[in-house]
Amino acid sequence: MGTIKKIDVLWRLDMVSLLEERVIHTKLTKTGYRIAEYLLENESRLCFMTATAVASEIGVSDASVIRVTRALGFDGFSDMQRRLREKATDMLSSSTIEDISPLERLKNRHPLQSDACNVENLAQQWFTTAVGSLRGVYENNDLSKFEEAADMIIASRQKLICGFRASSNIAGFFKLMLSLIMPNVHDSLTADSSAVDKMMNLTEEDCVVLFTFPRYFKMSKGVAEMARDKGAKLIIFTDRASSPMANGADIVIAAGSQSMNIFSSNMAAQFAAELMITIISHKLGIEKMTYLEWKEKYNIKYGVFDKNRD
């Protein structure tokens, strides 16, 4: 995907416009609003345009375009363009192709061709990608954050594990493993009113663990907001520390979702989740796992599991 096209796609997915708030809170003339509307609609393109080109497309003078940019709080067109370029650079450095839809990825990065499939090469490339993803979790996180998150989960009264759409499987796994070793673990895996209901009774004594990866789901943003409103601790597993979903979290665990496939991978997230469970298990120790012993006793007694093993 070309740089300009990628910026355009990422820009449309970005949650915050550099110009939108300024336009909303600025009084402009009729012509000024027409210019501002053009700037908003073409925000990603402005990085590569001159004031003359903008004026020509709108049908106004260069001076009119420059006046509007100054009214919006910039020193002029070049200052606005510099700010937009900085934003574009930040997005290109912190965002990955995984922020783009599977269809866009299929069109621009993964021209899958069955007649060109070499399984041996694919397996080798996949292995390399997988190892890199796991190494990234280890190298891109301060491991003290894992310990801090583990202590936070252990100390909390209620533990609510959340994840929606493609993130629901890893959230469900984490909830299942955690519920085997400690009580009061719940999940929210469906992006409907039930997610709101499960947030209602949270307090400062509780903890929310949210799994959210590109493409970010709207309900994930809502869960993070509700957790903050309730004063509950918020631990987020996401693709990178600079993720827009990470704002306001107590702890962010970065687990990249890069993949050779057209869909994001949960491999790194699975690794991070299992590492967290391992740390919690060791912190609890066998003497504190009476809850697990109790569950195992009745699971065997009522035939959930067979005690006899081949």
From TrEMBL:
Residues of the SIS domain: 149-283
Q: Which residues form a coiled coil?
A: none
Q: Which InterPro entries match?
A: HTH_RpiR, RpiR-like, RpiR-like_SIS, SIS_dom
Q: Which domain of life is it from?
A: Bacteria
Every copy of the HTH rpiR-type domain together lies at 15-91
Q: Name one Pfam family in it.
A: SIS
Which CDD domains does this UniProt record tie to the protein?
Answer: SIS_RpiR
Protein name as annotated: MurR/RpiR family transcriptional regulator
Say which species the protein is native to.
Answer: Dysosmobacter acutus
